[in-house]
Each structure stands twice: as C-alpha cells, then as structure tokens.
Design goal:
Layout lengths: L2 E7 L2 H9 L4 E9 L8 H5 L6 E8 L6 H10 L8 E2 L2 E2 L5 E5 L2 H9 L13 E5 L14
Parallel strand pairs: 6-7
Antiparallel strand pairs: 1-3, 1-6, 2-3, 4-5
C-alpha cells in the first residue's frame, strides 16, 4: 500500500525530478496548493493573487522509503531560509511548504520544525493540511 506526501520547495519541475529518482517513490504529480482559488491556471498563480504554492505530490511505498527520508530530501533540495524564492525563481508561489496527509505526517512535520540542515526563520516555512480535488492530486495542475 502506498502513501502520499506533498511538498513546496520552489519550481515544481526541479522537485519532481529529485523525488522521481528515489527508490520507493512510485509516482509524482505537480500542481498548486495552499491558495484560495479552486483549480487556478498557471497565469492565475503567477498573478500572486491566489496564494498558491507550486508543489509536488509524492506517492511512495513506506516499506521502501519512509516519510522521514522524504523530509530529509525536501530539506536538502532547497533553501527554506529564502522567503518566497528558490534560486532565480521569485514569488510567493515558490515558498517552502509542507502539506501533510493525515495526523501521522502532521506530527512528524511538527517534530521536524527546526531542520538541522539550514534552520528556518519563523514565518518562512508553511505546514498545513493538503487541499485536494476529487482525483486526490494537488488542487490543480499546470496547463
């Protein structure tokens, strides 16, 4: 049985490529989460009026890779200390975010609030429940 994890760490294409390489990851999907519009387009998100973050949803086999190992990769592939920015990509849609799928992930996210890799200044990383449409994927996908 697989589980899901959803992360925002800058441009979703780079995140997706990093997670796709991991043994135990069975699927990934990119989209937008954390905003106020249902099913925003890329243009909507780039207007910075929707509040969405670019995310990758990771489907994984917990017998082959743990959620904690996915968190380790999440913290290593981006710099959460740069507010609304990753490398050359600037905007609130590139913020660092964790969208948990259930109480077990929420508890682990809370334990991992102070990542030993870089440290997060208050207000620069977001953790919240996952918004999902009926497909179970992030709230929308890029067009």
């Amino acid at each position: 049985m697989t589980e899901k994890a959803t992360f925002g760490a800058g441009c979703f294409w780079g995140m997706q490529a990093a997670f796709d390489q991991l043994p135990g990851v069975t699927d990934t999907a990119v989209g937008y989460s954390g905003g106020i519009y249902p099913n925003p387009t890329y243009e909507d998100v780039c207007s910075h009026k929707t509040g969405h973050a670019e995310v990758v949803e990771v489907e994984f086999d917990p017998e082959k890779i743990s959620y904690d190992q996915l968190l380790d990769v999440f913290w290593k592939i981006h710099d959460p200390t740069t507010l609304n920015r990753q490398g050359p990509d600037v905007g609130d849609n590139y913020r660092s975010a964790i969208y948990f799928h259930g109480p077990d992930q929420e508890a682990r996210d809370q334990r991992d609030e102070e990542p030993p890799r870089l440290g997060v200044r208050p207000g620069q990383e977001e953790a919240q429940g996952q918004e999902r449409d009926h497909s179970g994927k992030p709230s929308s996908r890029p067009s």
